[in-house]
Amino acid sequence: MSLELDIRLPLARFTLEVGTRLDGASVAVMGRSGSGKTSLLEVLAGLRRGARGRVVLDGRVLLDSVARSDVPPEQRRMGYVPQDALLFPHLTAEQNVRYGVRPGRASRVDEAVEILELAPLLRRYPATLSGGEKQRVALARALATDPALLLLDEPLAALDVALKERVLPYLLRVRDEARVPMLYVTHQLGEARVLAREALLLDQGQVRAAGPAAEVLGAAARGLLAGEGDGEENILEGVLERPDDGGLRLRMQGGLSLWVPDSPALAPGTRAAYAVPAADILLSIQPLTGVSARNVMTGTVVNVESVATGEDAATVDVAGVRWVVWLTSASVRELGVVPGARVSLAVKTSACRRLR
């Protein structure tokens, strides 16, 4: 995807001004509530009037106020999924998915149904679906229109933790299997890190940072999002394996492995992703022995950043995998946790929550 943005839109409290180029297949759009994230998506979808400037997607000009060119929403090929699924209540799930399908693109319906595993839900009406099921149908409806770009406006925000865990794996499948570029609005750093390759950070309508997700979703994002979201998580992806002595491990890059909760339904060779809260990791400046945590590893502190008053986040590199660990500022001082320090980390198997 190549998305060129040079837009200006007056809003009630500030003017949204975004000038950047995004080239990743998945982009996280982050910022505090009211920072202009939804307005940006509405401009891209053609739903917000009054924007000036240019929007160019893969060489196709969608908006050029100087040339007085403004492609209508129905011709922009944007798949828009808001927080509220906004399904048609009088239509079945299947009828909702098929709504708006372009001529000759009926195969996209079958693909969307398969990726989002909707076959058991197709004959049901929205009133009988859970929040997570409604969001899956809304995602399928957007995919089935064969969009050039998916615009996802906090699709998990209205769901409780359990439902988020069920829907996030489907978003990963959409990213990896449907191969449709997406802009994903969220407050959750963990979600952003696992879904996005690039990130755009907005603050009062202005671009605070834009670029590779690994660079943008650090100290600046933490500071800007302080007090929002459910806490920071490490998202780890890899392939499952079953050692001869039993149990289940996630094999990651660099040969690092992580013991995870066992389940007979998980077969070796399956790609999987797990979340580990940054606050649930134990850090020691001494080698750890004789501890109950099954995952013990040694790494090097890359940096230490303030998260909030009295709290710091240490980034630790272990065999090429970056772990974020939350500590009190007092512990950081007392232990001497500084860049370059060798430390040990301990992670309980039970702290690893499967996402897919």
Automatic annotation (TrEMBL):
PROSITE patterns tied to this protein: ABC_TRANSPORTER_1, ABC_TRANSPORTER_2
Organism: Myxococcus xanthus (strain DK1622)
Alphabetical list of Gene3D superfamilies matching this protein: 2.40.50.100, P-loop containing nucleotide triphosphate hydrolases (3.40.50.300)
Protein name per UniProt: Molybdate ABC transporter, ATP-binding protein
Top-level enzyme category: hydrolase
SMART domains for this protein: AAA
Listed EC numbers: 3.6.3.29
Example of a GO MF term: ABC-type transporter activity
One of the Pfam families matching this protein, by short name: ABC_tran
GO terms under cellular component: membrane
Keywords carried by this UniProt record: ATP-binding, Hydrolase, Nucleotide-binding, Transport
NCBIfam families from the UniProt entry: modC_ABC
Family annotation (InterPro entries): AAA+_ATPase, ABC_transporter-like_ATP-bd, ABC_transporter-like_CS, Mo/tungstate-bd_C_term_dom, ModC_ABC_ATP-bd, Molybdenum_import_ModC, P-loop_NTPase
Domain of life: Bacteria
Domain called ABC transporter: residue spans: 7-229
